[in-house]
Design goal:
Chain A has helices at 14-28, 39-49, 65-75, 90-99, 111-126; strands at 5-10, 30-36, 53-56, 80-85, 103-106. With 127 residues, chain A is an alpha/beta fold. In chain A, strands 2-1-3-4-5 form a five-stranded parallel β-sheet, with helices on both faces. In chain A, helix 2 (39-49) runs parallel beside helix 3. Chain B has 150 residues and is an alpha+beta fold. Chain B has one domain: CheC-like (Chemotaxis protein chec, 3-Layer(aba) Sandwich). Chain B contains four helices and eight strands. Chain B has helices at 6-21, 62-72, 80-97, 99-102, and strands at 26-27, 31-32, 42-50, 54-60, 106-108, 112-115, 130-136, 139-147. In chain B, strands 1, 2, 3, 4, 5, 6, 7 and 8 form an eight-stranded antiparallel β-sheet that branches. In chain B, strand 3 (42-50) and strand 4 (54-60) form a beta hairpin. The longest helix of chain B is centred in the middle third of the chain and has 18 residues, at 80-97. The radius of gyration of chain B is 14 Å and the shape is globular. Chain B starts with 5 loop residues before the first helix and ends with a strand. Classes of the chains: A alpha/beta (127), B alpha+beta (150). Chain A binds chain B through residues 12-16, 18-19, 22, 59-61, 85-92, 95, 106-108, 110, and chain B through 15-16, 19-20, 72-73, 75-76, 78, 81-82, 85-86, 88-89, 92-93, 95-100, 102-104, 106, 108-110.
């Protein structure tokens, strides 16, 4: 895969933003186009940077991640959104996927979980 | 909250430490909080609403969080701000993971973090407050749970 994956990271947790930035840059040839700590800032950055991928938390101040998901898909239906959240219930996971998220990763965030999520996109890019 | 529901929180705590550090934490016997303060250097507080109401908090020492940071934040520079965030994120993850059992009507807030050791963190007097002791490596933390009886 030659082209960098342009990724916007959205999470109210500073350490999750840092971990994702480091791992996605080091292991997945990613270009991190923005880091947002809440939904409103995320949408501003989304419009400014036009990412191909978004990692998106759900429980955030200002705007719930599922509202953000809905809005991002309205603005760019082709964007690949990976939910990364502490909410481990199946109903929320199903709701997010039905709304159009491509993947749902329940925290705690581990290297293995991130790898499983990203591998599907890498396979997609190669096909 | 019924005492046997504490098992859900115990499982969530054990799962957190196992997944993030690869090591087992040990959870002590939960007990009812009395007058003594249960607060360490950093405390992450999560408000619970929806079908059940209350709050939980995770409190840990600076040293424990520093050591967790060396694993979770490996190769990433971190300082006080990251440790503050870490305690909030641990509380958030433990509470959010319990939704696997309680379901999506168990609504969790974003974490609020307290740095330093206040006199105590108070809960409504009419609700029982349970303390779950946690031991990881040589460090101790506590998960404190106060939920309506359902």
């Amino acid at each position: 895969m030659n082209q960098k994956m342009r990724i916007l990271i959205v999470d109210d947790s500073l350490i999750i933003r840092k971990i994702l930035q480091k791992k996605l840059t080091d292991y997945y040839n990613a270009e991190i186009v923005g880091l947002a700590g809440n939904g409103r800032v995320a949408l501003e950055m989304f419009d400014k940077t036009n990412p191909d991928y978004v990692t998106l938390d759900i429980t955030m101040p200002a705007m719930d991640g599922l509202e953000v998901l809905q809005e991002m898909l309205k603005r760019k239906p082709s964007v690949n959104v990976i939910i990364v959240t502490a909410l481990a219930d199946k109903d929320t996971a199903l709701q997010a996927i039905e709304m159009g998220a491509k993947c749902y990763v329940a925290k705690p965030l581990t290297r293995e979980k991130l790898q499983m999520a990203m591998d599907q996109f890498i396979k997609q890019e190669m096909n | 909250m019924k005492e046997n529901n504490l098992n859900f929180f115990v499982d969530s705590i054990l799962n957190y430490f196992k997944q993030t550090t690869g090591e087992e934490a040990v959870v002590g016997i939960p007990y009812l909080k009395e007058e003594e303060a249960v607060v360490l250097d950093f405390t992450g507080i999560i408000g619970i609403s929806g079908k059940q109401k209350g709050s939980i908090y995770l409190t840990a020492s600076h040293e424990m969080l520093e050591e967790l940071g060396t694993i979770i934040l490996a190769d990433i520079d971190y300082g006080q701000e990251e440790l503050k965030d870490l305690v909030g994120e641990i509380a958030n993850t433990i509470a959010g993971n319990v939704r696997d059992v309680y379901g999506s009507s168990f609504l969790i807030s974003v974490p609020a973090v307290v740095v330093g050791r206040p006199h105590d963190i108070r809960f409504p007097e009419e609700l029982p407050v349970f303390v779950i002791p946690i031991k990881w490596r040589k460090y101790q933390a506590f998960l404190v749970v106060c939920l309506e009886d359902k």
